[in-house]
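I am writing to request your help with a piece of structural work I have in hand. I am sending you one protein, given as its amino acid sequence and as whole-number tokens for its backbone shapes. Kindly check, if you would, that the fold set down in the tokens agrees with what the sequence suggests. You will find the record immediately after this paragraph:
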Amino acid sequence: MSSRKIQTTREDAPGHVDLTGEAVHWDFRDSMSYADYLHLKELLAAQKPLTGQHDEVLFITIHQASELWMKLCLHEIGAAIAQIRKDDLGPAFKMMARVARVQVNLIQSWEILSTMTPFDYAGFRAALGKSSGFQSFQYRMLEFRLGNKNRDATRVFQSHPDIAREVEKALVEPSIYDESLRLLARRGIAIPAEKLERDFSQPYVSDPRVTEAWRQVYHDAEKHWDLYELAEKLVDLEYRFHLWRFSHMKTVERIIGGKPGTGGTSGVSYLKKALDLRFYPELWDVRTEI
């Protein structure tokens, strides 16, 4: 039986893509590259474990990535509030829908972190000191923009004046729900005056008159179609936010059990308290009346 050498073409070579005829830019000594544009050198150098424990890199990566996603959420929610204020709901809906998709990623991040066992975490937890997700100023600002106001929570930022000012700004300005109620009022739907002009740094308190206003929207969705869609976009945001919180709580419970948090909270029991909070109470109450 004669042997014959088999010639392998570029197309046949495993893992090889033929670049013949492709006008690829190879030299970036005088041009901006992908890494330059994204500042990848700085970004990828930001993971600085304090111990030699393998899973600390996972812990850092999950939390840094979450902060980047929250930065995008703040960008989109701030712009959506501006559009609602201008009664331009089309762009606002796109921005709110994008945030909802980002929230899916944030929820999924807990699934990845849950691959870390209690033993893995115990290997580097002491190195965290008093640092905690409770101190995430972006999370707190996002919560405030969505409508869950809590001045007590801002005290943790007092040692960083620049951050404290940004958090305070998010606290005292109208949330996306406040602006939505103002829009309803401009459209001729009765909203109590004290809901339209109030101390926006205070937690929102449910009002049956606002429930009635939303009931009008839902009762005649064809007439109030964009307001109806706004209501559902708001519900979607809060729904996914609560899923994020629940996933967070269960992941923490899975990893540290009943231990207190590194930031001084009671840990899982504290996280469970947050599950009962409602951002847009009338949008949930109105469902009982439909």
Remarks:
- The longest helix spans residues 225-256.
- The chain has a mean pLDDT of 94.
- Residues 149 and 203 are 5 Å apart (CA to CA).
